[in-house]
Specification:
Blueprint (H helix, E strand, L loop, with lengths): L1 E5 L4 H12 L3 E6 L6 H4 L8 E5 L5 H9 L3 E4 L6 H6 L1 H22 L3 E6 L26 H22 L3 E6 L2 E2 L10 H11 L3 E4 L5 E3 L1 E2 H12 L7 E5 L4 E3 H11 L6 E4 L1 H4 L15 H7 L7 H13 L7
Parallel strand pairs: 1-2, 1-4, 2-3, 4-5, 5-6, 6-11, 7-10, 8-13
Antiparallel strand pairs: 9-12
Helix pairs in contact: 1-8, 3-5, 5-6, 7-9, 7-12
Bound molecules: uridine-5'-diphosphate (UDP).
The site of uridine-5'-diphosphate has 13 residues, from α7 and β8.
């Protein structure tokens, strides 16, 4: 099969491309290399069936051409990372909403099945743990820029589900929880690559807030596996699924583990949110997925725990880099 993977040169996208190629499919990766990097897919260039096209998902003619060449679409392209969202809200909202609109219109025109990757951010600051797909979402006010990301991704979900509702376009929505693994960069704020780099360099580990906030981290290979299984599942159509891992860890606990794993030289330094981001920043206290729905449909259970994830990230962080990286 020929797949279009938007955001194919991103961290998760590149793992997905690799997985599809390993299964014998052809992959057209569409990426404008804004947050994606050529280095993520450099090892795929030259593999039969792989092509990287550098353009934005907001360009209708480009997207149309790509979709006519493919039979199904994984739509991962998006603005990424809380820092970018806080610093460049207009670009964030436009990329997210316009991109998805363009993709969905083309998928509708050519009747292509489409999987949209959404985010656990849409649950906002709900305190009902674990988060279930049909829970109410609890977003903060529109004057707090962080919520722009959740609001925009939620609009993407509404739009995708509307295409299913009105025309039975086969769409699946996957709400990704914190995803980690090789090739993730700490440049956009992601905590594990940042702590790992800080620990390896013997620098202070920068814990934002009290560090009592928790997250659940899934290995990118587990996440990609779920996406591949969901896209063509007949009962997944018109549905939303949490994808992630439900092993919960506090950020302070995470910092301690990474400090110990990297030789124990780093101190752990707490930094107030106002200094780390901009004033008025709101963080989620806990974020845990209910995996019941996806487990029931495709028998999904994450195969890698936090220890294995950290070992993988550390191995790649310590690996010598080539010239294009
Ligand atoms: N965080 C931190 N230090 C960092 C980067 C992030 O303490 O250098 C915290 C961040 O405030 C959040 C958690 O780690 O509570 C996860 O952040 P990340 O940006 O990785 O993902 P998020 O869950 O916010 O989407």
């Amino acid at each position: 099969m020929n797949y279009l993977v938007t955001g194919g040169a991103g961290f998760i996208g590149s793992h997905l491309c690799e997985r599809l190629l390993d299964d014998g499919h052809s992959v057209l990766a569409l990426d404008d290399l804004s947050t994606g990097r050529f280095a993520n897919v450099a090892h795929l260039e030259g593999r039969p069936g792989f092509e990287l096209r550098v353009a934005s998902v907001t360009e209708p003619e480009v997207v149309e051409r790509c979709i006519t060449e493919c039979q199904a679409v994984f739509h991962l392209a998006s603005a990424v990372g809380v820092r970018l969202v806080v610093d460049e809200p207009v670009k964030t909202i436009e990329t997210i909403v316009n991109g998805t609109d363009v993709i969905l219109r083309c998928c509708a025109r050519y009747r292509r099945p489409m999987l949209l990757t959404s985010t656990s951010e849409v649950y906002g600051k709900s305190e009902r743990i674990p988060f279930r797909e049909d829970d109410d979402v609890v977003l903060g006010p529109s004057t707090t820029r962080r919520w722009a990301y959740a609001g925009a991704k939620m609009l993407d979900e509404f739009l995708a589900l509307a295409h299913w509702h009105e025309a039975r376009l086969p769409v699946v929505v996957a709400r990704l929880f914190n995803t980690v693994g090789p090739r993730q960069t700490g440049r956009y704020g992601m905590v594990i690559p940042r702590f790992m780099a800080q620990g390896i360099a013997g620098e202070p580990l920068t814990v934002y807030g009290t560090g009592r906030q928790t997250r659940c981290f899934a290995h990118v290979k587990d996440v990609v596996e779920a996406l591949v299984q969901l896209i063509h599942h007949p009962e997944a159509r018109g549905q939303v699924f949490n994808v992630g891992n439900d092993e919960e860890v506090s950020i302070l606990g995470l910092a301690e583990r990474i400090r110990d794993l990297t030789g124990g030289r780093s101190e752990i330094r707490t930094i107030p949110y106002d200094e780390a981001y901009t004033s008025g920043f709101e963080d989620m206290v806990r974020r845990v997925p209910s995996l019941e729905k996806i487990q029931r449909l495709i028998g999904y259970t994450p195969t890698r725990n936090l220890g294995q994830i950290l070992a993988d990230v550390r191995a790649e962080a310590e690996r010598p880099r080539g010239p294009i990286e």
